[in-house]
Write a structure and sequence with these properties.
alpha+beta, seven-stranded antiparallel sheet
Length: about 120
């Protein structure tokens, strides 16, 4: 199945660090989070059914619509936690986001809008 990969980070690790210890190479899933009061387009990163962080808000809207259109986003941990460079700080976990879809047009559109 066709895929597209970007380097990213799992945000909000400081909130979930008591529930999860990231391991390099660990495979995680993602899901749209309909009830998030902070971001209506939030995409949760999951280990089984447990939320362990979120896709960065800078790309969450694109990811949310990609999932809605039938694509899937897998997440692979690439390093241990680090302090976020954002003004608000916090901890994040470096990762690769792997976008997978049967629809090649959907992947082409995605490549145009993501870094």
């Amino acid at each position: 199945m066709p895929e597209f990969i970007i380097h990213s980070a799992i945000r909000g690790f400081h909130v979930y660090k008591s529930l999860w210890t990231p391991e390099i190479g660990e495979a995680l899933s993602t899901a749209r989070e309909h009830d998030n009061p902070h971001d209506r387009f939030a995409v949760a990163v999951k280990k089984a059914r447990l939320t362990v962080g979120h896709v960065p808000t800078e790309i969450s809207k694109v990811c949310w619509f990609f999932l809605r259109r039938g694509g899937s986003i897998n997440c692979k941990v690439t390093n241990t936690r680090r302090r976020s460079l954002l003004d608000q700080g916090g901890l994040e976990v470096p990762c690769e986001l792997i976008f997978v879809a049967d629809d090649l047009k959907l992947l082409k559109k995605l490549k145009k809008v993501l870094p």
